[in-house]
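Session log. Operator J.P. requested a structure for one protein chain; no other inputs attached. Running the standard single-chain path with C-alpha cell output.
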Amino acid sequence: MAAPAAPVWSVDPRTGKQREQVAVEATAEEVDRVVRAAHAARGALADRAVRAAFLRSAADLLDEAGDHVIEAADAETALGPGRLTGELARTTYQLRAFADVVDEGAFLDIVIDHSHPSPATTPPTSASRAPLSAGPVPRPDLRRYKVPLGVVAVYSASNFPLAFSVPGGDTASALAAGCPVVVKAHPDHPGTSELCAALLRMAAGRHGLPEGVVGLVHGFEAGVELVRHPLIAAAGFTGSIRGGRALFDAAAARPVPIPFHGELGSLNPVVVTEAAAQERAEEIGTGLAGSMTLGAGQFCTKPGLVLAPAGAAGDRVVKALTKAVSDTAEGVLLDARMRDAFVAGVRARTALTGVESPVTPGETGENAVAAGFLTVPAARLADGGEHGLLLEECFGPVTVVARYEDEAEITAVLGRLPGNLTATVHLGEGEAGEGDGLAARLLAELTPLAGRVLVNGWPTGVAVAPAQHHGGPYPATTSTSTSVGGTAIERWLRPVTFQATPEALLPPELRDTNPLGLPRRVNGHQAP
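Structure written below.
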C-alpha cells in the first residue's frame, strides 16, 4: 500500500510555528495528471488576443485581491506589507507588460525571404557547394517565425513569493509565448501559491481557457518528477546553486533533454575607486548598507563583495557603513533552514585568518538575525586558498569588504570570481569622463563577469523594462537569457522555417497579405 501523501503546511517564519495545512505533496501520478492537463491546453492558448486578455485579467484579479494576497504572503515570508505591496505592483505590471508584448507581435521574429533567381548556370552538387556571397544566390522562398515550445515547468523562488513565483515573470512570459505552465510551489509560501494559482485560473476561465493552462504541484519529489516528465518542454528556476544544478543536470539527462533556464547564485561584486571614496565616502557607505540589508539581505542582486581602497578614504567608507548597518533593525529570514545556513556561513567566514567583523552579523533571537559585514585584505582573496569561501554567496544581511592596495589587487580578485548577475563600479567625477583610464579598464574587467554592469549605483532593484537583462555567466544563470523584461519570452519559443510553401498552407503570420498586421522583415528590410 502506498504511503499517504505528506501534508504541506504554511509556516510563520516569525515564530517558526505551523499556521495551517494548505495542500498535500503531489505524487508521481498527480504530477502526470497536471502535466497532461497543461499539455492538452496548448491549443487554447494559440490565439494571441485571448492570451493578452488573459494576462491582463490575471493582473486585474491580483490587484483586486491585493490586500488578501499581501496578507497571505507576509504571514508566510515576514517580508512586510511595504515590500510586498511593491512586489505585487511589479508582478501585475509584468503581466500587463507581457500582454503588450503579445499584442505587438515582434517577439514572433518574423523574417520572409522571397525566392531569388540565381545567376549561376550550374546548380550546386554534393561535391561542389554554392559559395556564400553578398550578392544574389540560389534561394527558395523562406519564411521563419517562432512557435511555443510546449508545457513549461516553473520553479518558484523563496524570496519573491509573487514576482518570481506562481504569478511571476517565468509564468507570465511562458503564458505570453503560448506555453501552459506547471508551477512547483515553494515550500516557504504554499498558501500564497495556492491563492495566486486560483486567481490565475479564474482569469483563464473568464476567457474560455481551461484551468489546465496553470497547474500547481507541491513537494520536493514532485519537482524532480516535473523536470523529468516527457511532456515538459522547458523549465525556469530561481533558487540555490545546489538545487538548481541538480535540476539542470536532470533536464540534461532526460532521453530528450530540454532547455533549463536557471538562476542559481550571484556575489554581485562592487569596486569603489580611490577617487570615488575620497569624494563621497559617506554616501557610498550608507548606500551599500541599504543595498546589502534590503529585504534582510535576501535579494539575488545583493552586493556580497565590495573592493574598497585600503587608505584613509576607504576607512571613511567603512566608518559610514558601520554606522548605517549598526542602525539597521534585525530581520527575519524566510525560514529556519536559511537562518541556520546564514549563521553557519558567517561563523565559517569570521574564522578565516585576517577577517575582521566591524559589525558582527548573526542570530539575535530564536528567529531573527542582525545585519553585519566583514573586512579582509584583498591580498588574501587574491592568494586563493581557504579565503575562496569569501567569494561565495552568503544568503542574508552580510557583505565582505576587501581592502585593496592597488589596481593589481583589484584585477587579481576579479580574476577569481565566477559569473554574476551584476557588477558595479563607483567612480570619481573625473574618472567617469575618461575613455581610456582606470574606469574603462575596470568596466572591461567587469563586463565578462556579469549580465548587468552598473556605474555609481546599487544592484538591488531590477527594473522591468525592454532593455533589462537579469542573467549572467554561470553560476548566475545556466543560459544566456534574461528572466526579467520583454525578451524573457524568447526562452519559451523556437524558430521554424517554411520553405517553398503554398500561401494557403502558410500560418497567417507568414502570409504575404499579413492579415494579422504583424511587424516583420521582408527581403532584408523592415516591413509594416
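Operator note: The two ends are 64 Å apart (CA to CA).
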